[in-house]
DNA sequence: TCAATATACAACCAATAGGTTGTAGAACAA
DNA sequence: TTGTTCTACAACCTATTGGTTGTATATTGA
């Protein structure tokens, strides 16, 4: 229990922040896949895919089991649910804000909120 | 799935992968805060906090509006919802897997799934 | 007017991320 | 046995991240 919750959460979102890793996770949620099988799909080396699997594994987003030579990966829905729960908590903060009427007050404000331009 | 959408998603999860940024986001969801006001809470320079705000802004997780000298940040629940939706889709893949009975077949397997040891 | 405040942004630096190639060993197939 | 497959991991390289300090500019208040 050396690792704090914050660091665990950091690792989960970091693991999710790469689209190759999200793709590996999607496939591992649908069924078991060996690393070499996964690696065949991407335009990068086996070692690179192996590292992506390792990042997902260390984040707890997937489990591994040995079957002969193969290391079979399987998505772990528990960890995904914990990330979803955290996002729901963030959303709830905003809803709380609506309840306190801050949102309605803000609607009277003539200034336009500034989102970054697409790049 | 478009490349640009992938990049936008990468940015959202990357922005969420730092606990200082998650804290800034929480506070910005509860109400508006100027950057200097936020910066006072953290053990780092104003410029560092400004960079964190910029990462959140570029990810679309918060909006900025000018009020005199101040740049007021406000959390954007829309972007959080889009991230939540993506995680829900991932969870759904796993539920789909249950429907296909893969999960029940896997339960017969004697080998124990391997999660990484805490470090 | 002038000092203080708030922000923006550039330049710099160490650590980490994401890729590569190479080496080694275990498990399988013939 | 021997060659092939699959994984693990080290060493290396470059780009990015997350922090710093310093400078410039706009706004406010006395």
SSE topology string of chain A:
HHEHHEEHH
Strand order of the largest sheet of chain A: 1-3-2
How many β-strands of chain A, per DSSP? 3
**Percent helix range of chain A:** 55-70%
Q: What's the tally of helices of chain A?
A: 6
The largest inter-chain interface, given as chain pair and residues per side, is: A-B, 56 and 56 residues
Instruction: Give the class-level CATH name of the domain at 5-76 in chain A.
Output: Mainly Alpha
Oligomer: homodimer
**CATH fold annotation of the domain at 5-76 in chain A:** Arc Repressor Mutant, subunit A
**CATH superfamily membership of the domain at 5-76 in chain A, which one?**
Winged helix-like DNA-binding domain superfamily/Winged helix DNA-binding domain
Strand content of chain A: 5-15%
Query: Biggest sheet of chain A, open or closed, and with what strands and sense?
Result: 3 strands, antiparallel
Rg of chain A over CA atoms, rounded to whole Å, is: 20 Å
Q: What class do helices, strands and sheet pairing of chain A give? A: mainly alpha
Considering the chains and any ligands shown, give keywords for the structure.
homodimer; mainly alpha; Arc Repressor Mutant, subunit A; three-stranded antiparallel sheet; 3 strands; 12% strand; elongated; DNA-binding
């Amino acid at each position: 229990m050396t690792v704090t919750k914050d660091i665990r959460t950091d690792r989960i979102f970091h693991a999710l922040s790469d689209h190759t890793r999200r793709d590996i996770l999607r496939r591992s949620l649908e069924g078991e896949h060996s690393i070499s099988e996964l690696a065949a799909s991407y335009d990068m080396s086996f070692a690179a895919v192996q590292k992506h699997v390792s990042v997902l594994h260390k984040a707890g987003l997937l489990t591994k089991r040995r079957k002969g030579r193969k290391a079979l990966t399987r998505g772990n829905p528990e960890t995904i649910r914990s990330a979803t729960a955290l996002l729901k908590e963030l959303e709830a903060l905003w809803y709380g804000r609506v309840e306190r009427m801050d949102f309605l007050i803000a609607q009277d404000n003539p200034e336009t909120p500034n989102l970054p331009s697409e790049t």
